[in-house]
Specification:
Length: about 270
Amino acid sequence: MDMTIKHSMPASDRPYYVAVSNEEQVFKAACRQGLSVLLKGPTGCGKTRFVEAMAHDLGRPLITVSCHDDLTTADLVGRYLLHGGETQWVDGPLTRAVREGAICYLDEVVEARQDTTVVLHPLADHRRQLPLERLGVTLTAAPGFCLVVSYNPGYQSVLKDLKDSTRQRMVAIEFGFPAPEVEEKIVAQEAGIDPKQAASLVRLAQAIRRLETGGLREVASTRVLITAGRLVAEGLTMSAAAKAAIAGPLTDDAKVSSGLAKMVDVYLGDGA
Ligand code: ADP
Protein backbone atom coordinates (compact mmCIF):
# COMPACT_ATOMS: atom_id res chain seq x y z
CA MET A 1 0.00 0.00 0.00
CA ASP A 2 1.83 3.11 -1.15
CA MET A 3 -0.64 5.84 -0.52
CA THR A 4 0.30 8.97 1.34
CA ILE A 5 -1.61 9.59 4.51
CA LYS A 6 -1.17 12.60 6.73
CA HIS A 7 -2.87 12.80 10.11
CA SER A 8 -2.62 16.12 11.89
CA MET A 9 -4.23 17.74 14.88
CA PRO A 10 -5.38 21.33 14.39
CA ALA A 11 -2.34 23.59 14.35
CA SER A 12 -2.21 26.31 17.00
CA ASP A 13 -1.31 28.85 14.31
CA ARG A 14 -3.68 29.17 11.42
CA PRO A 15 -2.08 27.92 8.20
CA TYR A 16 -1.59 30.92 5.91
CA TYR A 17 -4.55 31.02 3.55
CA VAL A 18 -5.97 34.02 1.70
CA ALA A 19 -9.64 33.67 0.82
CA VAL A 20 -10.35 34.07 -2.87
CA SER A 21 -14.13 34.16 -2.78
CA ASN A 22 -16.79 32.91 -0.35
CA GLU A 23 -15.20 29.45 -0.10
CA GLU A 24 -14.62 29.63 3.67
CA GLN A 25 -18.24 30.44 4.37
CA VAL A 26 -19.52 27.66 2.11
CA PHE A 27 -17.12 25.09 3.54
CA LYS A 28 -17.90 25.87 7.16
CA ALA A 29 -21.64 25.88 6.54
CA ALA A 30 -21.40 22.49 4.79
CA CYS A 31 -19.30 20.97 7.59
CA ARG A 32 -21.61 22.22 10.30
CA GLN A 33 -24.52 20.66 8.44
CA GLY A 34 -22.68 17.35 8.10
CA LEU A 35 -22.56 17.70 4.32
CA SER A 36 -19.66 16.51 2.18
CA VAL A 37 -17.58 18.88 0.07
CA LEU A 38 -16.20 18.57 -3.45
CA LEU A 39 -13.25 20.85 -4.27
CA LYS A 40 -12.74 21.33 -7.99
CA GLY A 41 -9.74 22.98 -9.53
CA PRO A 42 -6.33 22.64 -11.15
CA THR A 43 -3.32 21.43 -9.21
CA GLY A 44 -1.42 24.00 -7.16
CA CYS A 45 -4.27 26.46 -6.71
CA GLY A 46 -4.57 26.18 -2.93
CA LYS A 47 -7.05 23.36 -2.25
CA THR A 48 -4.87 21.52 0.26
CA ARG A 49 -3.86 24.69 2.06
CA PHE A 50 -7.52 25.71 2.20
CA VAL A 51 -8.57 22.45 3.88
CA GLU A 52 -5.73 22.83 6.40
CA ALA A 53 -6.95 26.32 7.29
CA MET A 54 -10.54 25.10 7.59
CA ALA A 55 -9.50 22.21 9.89
CA HIS A 56 -7.78 24.80 12.07
CA ASP A 57 -10.79 27.12 12.16
CA LEU A 58 -13.22 24.31 12.90
CA GLY A 59 -10.85 22.76 15.46
CA ARG A 60 -10.96 19.33 13.81
CA PRO A 61 -8.15 16.83 13.20
CA LEU A 62 -7.35 16.47 9.51
CA ILE A 63 -6.63 13.18 7.76
CA THR A 64 -5.40 13.64 4.21
CA VAL A 65 -5.16 10.76 1.74
CA SER A 66 -3.51 11.23 -1.65
CA CYS A 67 -5.42 8.92 -3.95
CA HIS A 68 -3.91 6.88 -6.79
CA ASP A 69 -5.29 4.37 -9.22
CA ASP A 70 -4.49 1.30 -7.12
CA LEU A 71 -6.28 2.63 -4.10
CA THR A 72 -8.66 -0.04 -2.84
CA THR A 73 -11.57 0.06 -0.46
CA ALA A 74 -9.43 -1.80 2.10
CA ASP A 75 -6.78 0.92 1.87
CA LEU A 76 -9.38 3.46 2.95
CA VAL A 77 -11.46 1.40 5.34
CA GLY A 78 -8.98 -1.00 6.95
CA ARG A 79 -7.84 -4.59 6.83
CA TYR A 80 -6.74 -7.55 8.90
CA LEU A 81 -2.97 -7.65 9.26
CA LEU A 82 -0.79 -10.37 10.70
CA HIS A 83 0.61 -9.25 14.02
CA GLY A 84 2.75 -11.65 16.09
CA GLY A 85 1.07 -14.71 14.62
CA GLU A 86 -2.42 -13.30 15.04
CA THR A 87 -4.57 -11.35 12.69
CA GLN A 88 -5.54 -7.95 13.90
CA TRP A 89 -7.91 -5.45 12.39
CA VAL A 90 -6.28 -2.11 11.56
CA ASP A 91 -8.47 0.87 10.75
CA GLY A 92 -7.80 2.67 7.48
CA PRO A 93 -7.66 6.47 7.34
CA LEU A 94 -11.34 6.87 6.44
CA THR A 95 -12.45 4.69 9.36
CA ARG A 96 -10.20 6.61 11.74
CA ALA A 97 -11.69 9.89 10.56
CA VAL A 98 -15.23 8.53 11.00
CA ARG A 99 -14.49 7.39 14.56
CA GLU A 100 -12.65 10.58 15.54
CA GLY A 101 -14.95 13.09 13.91
CA ALA A 102 -12.06 14.33 11.78
CA ILE A 103 -12.06 16.05 8.43
CA CYS A 104 -11.10 13.40 5.87
CA TYR A 105 -9.58 14.90 2.72
CA LEU A 106 -9.29 12.57 -0.26
CA ASP A 107 -7.01 14.39 -2.65
CA GLU A 108 -7.52 13.65 -6.37
CA VAL A 109 -10.32 11.22 -5.67
CA VAL A 110 -10.93 10.47 -9.36
CA GLU A 111 -7.63 8.63 -9.32
CA ALA A 112 -9.16 6.01 -7.05
CA ARG A 113 -11.02 3.04 -8.46
CA GLN A 114 -14.74 3.42 -8.86
CA ASP A 115 -15.51 0.62 -6.42
CA THR A 116 -13.63 2.67 -3.84
CA THR A 117 -15.86 5.64 -4.30
CA VAL A 118 -18.88 3.41 -3.65
CA VAL A 119 -17.99 3.18 0.06
CA LEU A 120 -18.25 6.93 0.12
CA HIS A 121 -21.95 7.01 -0.79
CA PRO A 122 -23.57 6.17 2.56
CA LEU A 123 -21.01 8.45 4.22
CA ALA A 124 -21.58 11.33 1.88
CA ASP A 125 -25.35 11.44 2.23
CA HIS A 126 -27.62 11.99 5.25
CA ARG A 127 -26.87 8.52 6.66
CA ARG A 128 -23.24 9.40 7.45
CA GLN A 129 -22.53 5.70 7.81
CA LEU A 130 -19.54 3.56 6.98
CA PRO A 131 -20.20 -0.16 6.66
CA LEU A 132 -17.20 -2.28 7.69
CA GLU A 133 -18.13 -5.52 5.99
CA ARG A 134 -15.17 -7.49 7.26
CA LEU A 135 -16.07 -6.64 10.85
CA GLY A 136 -19.82 -6.95 10.29
CA VAL A 137 -20.49 -3.51 11.74
CA THR A 138 -21.68 -0.19 10.44
CA LEU A 139 -20.18 2.92 12.00
CA THR A 140 -22.04 6.19 12.24
CA ALA A 141 -19.71 9.13 11.77
CA ALA A 142 -18.86 10.99 14.97
CA PRO A 143 -19.97 14.63 15.13
CA GLY A 144 -17.51 16.83 13.30
CA PHE A 145 -16.69 14.23 10.64
CA CYS A 146 -16.54 15.85 7.24
CA LEU A 147 -15.72 14.18 3.96
CA VAL A 148 -13.84 16.39 1.51
CA VAL A 149 -12.76 15.23 -1.93
CA SER A 150 -10.85 17.11 -4.58
CA TYR A 151 -10.38 16.60 -8.25
CA ASN A 152 -8.92 18.33 -11.22
CA PRO A 153 -11.53 18.64 -13.96
CA GLY A 154 -8.76 19.13 -16.56
CA TYR A 155 -7.48 15.58 -16.11
CA GLN A 156 -10.74 13.92 -16.47
CA SER A 157 -11.53 11.03 -18.70
CA VAL A 158 -15.03 9.63 -19.02
CA LEU A 159 -13.93 6.54 -17.13
CA LYS A 160 -12.55 8.49 -14.28
CA ASP A 161 -15.47 10.81 -14.02
CA LEU A 162 -17.05 10.82 -10.61
CA LYS A 163 -20.37 9.05 -10.53
CA ASP A 164 -23.27 11.45 -10.67
CA SER A 165 -24.80 9.75 -7.68
CA THR A 166 -21.64 10.62 -5.71
CA ARG A 167 -21.44 14.18 -6.95
CA GLN A 168 -25.05 14.97 -6.22
CA ARG A 169 -24.52 14.24 -2.57
CA MET A 170 -21.91 16.94 -2.22
CA VAL A 171 -21.49 20.68 -1.94
CA ALA A 172 -19.13 21.88 -4.69
CA ILE A 173 -16.57 24.64 -4.34
CA GLU A 174 -14.78 25.77 -7.48
CA PHE A 175 -11.15 26.83 -7.22
CA GLY A 176 -9.38 28.88 -9.82
CA PHE A 177 -6.25 30.96 -9.62
CA PRO A 178 -6.65 34.00 -7.39
CA ALA A 179 -6.97 37.53 -8.80
CA PRO A 180 -3.51 38.95 -9.68
CA GLU A 181 -3.26 41.26 -6.66
CA VAL A 182 -4.15 38.37 -4.32
CA GLU A 183 -1.79 35.96 -6.04
CA GLU A 184 1.05 38.51 -5.82
CA LYS A 185 0.51 38.77 -2.10
CA ILE A 186 0.54 34.98 -1.69
CA VAL A 187 3.69 34.51 -3.79
CA ALA A 188 5.54 37.33 -1.97
CA GLN A 189 4.57 35.94 1.42
CA GLU A 190 5.23 32.25 0.67
CA ALA A 191 8.51 32.76 -1.19
CA GLY A 192 9.79 35.65 0.92
CA ILE A 193 10.41 37.97 -2.04
CA ASP A 194 9.39 41.57 -2.56
CA PRO A 195 5.94 42.34 -3.95
CA LYS A 196 7.34 43.79 -7.18
CA GLN A 197 9.17 40.57 -8.01
CA ALA A 198 6.07 38.57 -7.11
CA ALA A 199 4.00 40.79 -9.41
CA SER A 200 6.36 40.08 -12.33
CA LEU A 201 6.07 36.34 -11.79
CA VAL A 202 2.29 36.63 -11.70
CA ARG A 203 2.27 38.62 -14.97
CA LEU A 204 4.31 35.86 -16.63
CA ALA A 205 1.92 33.22 -15.27
CA GLN A 206 -1.06 35.09 -16.61
CA ALA A 207 0.50 35.22 -20.06
CA ILE A 208 1.14 31.45 -19.90
CA ARG A 209 -2.43 30.86 -18.75
CA ARG A 210 -3.71 32.77 -21.78
CA LEU A 211 -1.81 30.50 -24.18
CA GLU A 212 -3.88 28.07 -26.11
CA THR A 213 -1.43 25.26 -26.59
CA GLY A 214 -1.90 21.55 -26.60
CA GLY A 215 1.72 21.17 -25.49
CA LEU A 216 1.01 22.08 -21.89
CA ARG A 217 -0.54 19.54 -19.55
CA GLU A 218 -1.08 22.20 -16.95
CA VAL A 219 -0.81 25.95 -16.86
CA ALA A 220 1.50 27.76 -14.44
CA SER A 221 0.02 27.31 -10.96
CA THR A 222 0.45 29.43 -7.86
CA ARG A 223 2.66 26.61 -6.57
CA VAL A 224 5.22 26.92 -9.41
CA LEU A 225 5.33 30.70 -8.94
CA ILE A 226 6.17 30.20 -5.29
CA THR A 227 8.88 27.71 -6.24
CA ALA A 228 10.38 30.23 -8.68
CA GLY A 229 10.18 32.90 -5.97
CA ARG A 230 12.08 30.66 -3.57
CA LEU A 231 14.90 30.36 -6.09
CA VAL A 232 14.92 34.14 -6.44
CA ALA A 233 15.13 34.41 -2.66
CA GLU A 234 18.29 32.28 -2.96
CA GLY A 235 19.84 34.81 -5.33
CA LEU A 236 18.93 33.44 -8.77
CA THR A 237 17.88 35.99 -11.38
CA MET A 238 14.17 36.15 -12.08
CA SER A 239 14.55 34.64 -15.55
CA ALA A 240 16.79 31.77 -14.41
CA ALA A 241 14.38 30.99 -11.60
CA ALA A 242 11.36 31.09 -13.90
CA LYS A 243 13.00 28.83 -16.48
CA ALA A 244 13.91 26.29 -13.82
CA ALA A 245 10.71 26.36 -11.81
CA ILE A 246 7.99 27.40 -14.28
CA ALA A 247 8.96 26.65 -17.89
CA GLY A 248 10.90 23.42 -17.22
CA PRO A 249 8.32 21.48 -15.22
CA LEU A 250 5.41 22.45 -17.49
CA THR A 251 6.53 20.66 -20.64
CA ASP A 252 8.97 18.19 -22.20
CA ASP A 253 8.17 19.33 -25.72
CA ALA A 254 11.23 21.11 -27.18
CA LYS A 255 9.23 23.62 -29.24
CA VAL A 256 6.85 24.55 -26.46
CA SER A 257 9.78 24.71 -24.09
CA SER A 258 11.72 27.17 -26.23
CA GLY A 259 8.54 29.23 -26.68
CA LEU A 260 8.14 29.41 -22.91
CA ALA A 261 11.80 30.34 -22.47
CA LYS A 262 11.28 33.23 -24.90
CA MET A 263 8.26 34.39 -22.94
CA VAL A 264 10.33 34.30 -19.77
CA ASP A 265 12.96 36.49 -21.43
CA VAL A 266 10.36 38.97 -22.61
CA TYR A 267 8.62 39.19 -19.23
CA LEU A 268 11.54 38.76 -16.87
CA GLY A 269 14.75 39.12 -18.86
CA ASP A 270 17.43 41.43 -17.56
CA GLY A 271 16.11 44.91 -17.76
CA ALA A 272 12.48 43.76 -18.14
P1 ADP B 1 -3.57 22.13 -4.44
O1 ADP B 1 -3.93 21.34 -3.21
O2 ADP B 1 -4.72 22.82 -5.09
O3 ADP B 1 -2.75 21.33 -5.44
P2 ADP B 1 -1.91 23.65 -2.60
O4 ADP B 1 -2.89 23.91 -1.52
O5 ADP B 1 -0.86 22.65 -2.32
O6 ADP B 1 -2.62 23.32 -3.99
O7 ADP B 1 -1.27 25.06 -3.00
C1 ADP B 1 0.05 25.19 -3.46
C2 ADP B 1 0.73 26.30 -2.69
O8 ADP B 1 0.22 27.55 -3.13
C3 ADP B 1 0.45 26.25 -1.20
O9 ADP B 1 1.45 25.52 -0.52
C4 ADP B 1 0.45 27.69 -0.80
O10 ADP B 1 1.78 28.08 -0.52
C5 ADP B 1 0.03 28.43 -2.04
N1 ADP B 1 -1.35 28.93 -2.12
C6 ADP B 1 -2.19 28.75 -3.15
N2 ADP B 1 -3.35 29.40 -2.95
C7 ADP B 1 -3.23 30.01 -1.75
C8 ADP B 1 -4.10 30.86 -0.98
N3 ADP B 1 -5.31 31.20 -1.42
N4 ADP B 1 -3.63 31.31 0.20
C9 ADP B 1 -2.38 30.99 0.64
N5 ADP B 1 -1.53 30.19 -0.03
C10 ADP B 1 -1.94 29.71 -1.22
